[in-house]
Amino acid sequence: FAEKLVSFIQEHAHKTSEELAKEKGCFPNWKDSIWNTKINRKMRNAAVTTIAPTGTISLIAGCNGGIEPVFSIVSEREALDGEKFIEINPLVEELGTQQGWLSKEVSDLLCQGVAPKDIPEIPQKLSNVLVTAHEVAPAFHVRTQAAFQKYTDNAVSKTVNLPADATIEDVDTVFRLAHKLGCKGTTVYRDSSRENQVITAARKKVPDLQKIEPRSRPRKTKGQTIKFRMGCGTLFVDVNKDDIGLCEVFANLGKAGGCPAQSEATCRVVSVALRSGVDPEVLIEQLKGIRCLSTITRQKENKEITVLSCPDAIGRAIEESLGEKNEVAIISLSNKCPECGYPMRRESQCKICINCGHNKCG
Q: Residue 334: its pLDDT value, please?
């Protein structure tokens, strides 16, 4: 269709230029041009058709953007003073008003970035053709440009809109295809590649997460200290409470070695989470079961080691402070891992390999 349309325009433009040449004469360099040397046709104009850049110009004029697909049904524009405003495509707005489906609810959905095909009120026949620039595959952007270039004297201005996650390979494919199909030039633009973008598509808004400030720590707290044997020494975990509930955790390794920085970081994050209202059960679930190579290796030789790592010990200490049963990770020497042959340990109703992580429950 594109070739049929533009060939019709070019045919009549050339015919008119030819008629003007008979009336007013050819353009000055006609003798040395292909119109004389190859085509043998008198022309008033060296070139009669071109498709110039119309992106920003069409926005200013409020008209069609040439051969570009509609950038977005709803666009967010930024004015020169930095003010941003939302605009529904004028044609869509006109059709919606005429056909009676453009209600406030539909407008709100469009402004939130919901696709027309996902809005039941918009007729399917219409939503099927409301395809925007980012929904057109890059290759078809180029093929459309090539179709127009075939019957255009000068170059065709066309922007291939790429998504924000487009790769170098995607850009390479566009330019190579444009060269292969005979385009005189092409432009690619990766969405959000510039800090200030004149026009952007309306996107589905992600609700803002509620920010929670942790409650302040009181001057005095009460708690208990729980001792754990580790692969690199003895770990003492303090779990303290305030008037509301658990509020902080400290861990101290009795002997030199281990990873005190990581343990301190874990305790700080856990303490902030507790004072922010995070359910201790969630923290216990995340911490228990984390394994440390040093601890699980020595666990085979030292039966006093009943935890898997410092985070595992911290999780168990929180669990014990809540008054729940703290099950010991029991090593079953009679039950070896079918994958690597190392002993399996039993925790809750599961058997877990301390070496490769293979597990069997029930």
A: 46
